[in-house]
Amino acid sequence: MSDTELQFRTAAFGGFQKQDVLNYIESANQEHREKLEELTRELEEARKARQALEEEQAQARQQAQAGAESTRELERQLEEARGEAAERKERLDGAEAELGRLRAALAEAEGKLARAEPAAQAYEKVKDRTAGIELEAHCRAQAVQAEAEERVEQARRDMEQWLNKVRRSYEELRHDMDATLSHAGGELERVRAALDEISNRFCAQDERLEKMVQACVGEHKAPDPLPLEDKK
Q: Would you say the C-alpha torsion 43, 45, 49, 51 has a positive or negative sign?
């Protein structure tokens, strides 16, 4: 509010006009409210900015921490890579040394091979001849094996025929034996029945003879002996 606007109109009976004072107060209050709202907005914006800054700082700290961990991991991997590289270099040196020894051995072997070429050709000839002999021996062995298998098969067939013949003979003999035993059993039963009948007849004859003896003894019984006279 400008200075000219602060000039109040005087009243007829002294003092200022009430409406001018009220307008001034209302204007001052409105200006105060506007400033307060502006300060509130600025404070809220500052608070939001501070919160965003704190979040950014926290995120930055996390990123820094993650970066530090990543750095430590990279340093560890680098150390492992260095160790692995040193080990590989050592292996490579050993492989190169071994390769040198192999090359020397190969050169020596080539020299020996060149010197042994005539002997190798002679060996090939002997090998071919030996292969022919082995093939002929193998064919002979197969023929002998086939003949032996045929003989074994024939022997097996002969043995099977002999066993069948023995089995048939045994079955016939067993059948005859069963018939003989059955006939002998019947004869024994008849003999046993005849003996039982004869025994029964003898028993009847014994009873009859016993009765006749008793009858004869009763008819021809001796008289009682006389009493002895008394001697005086």
A: positive
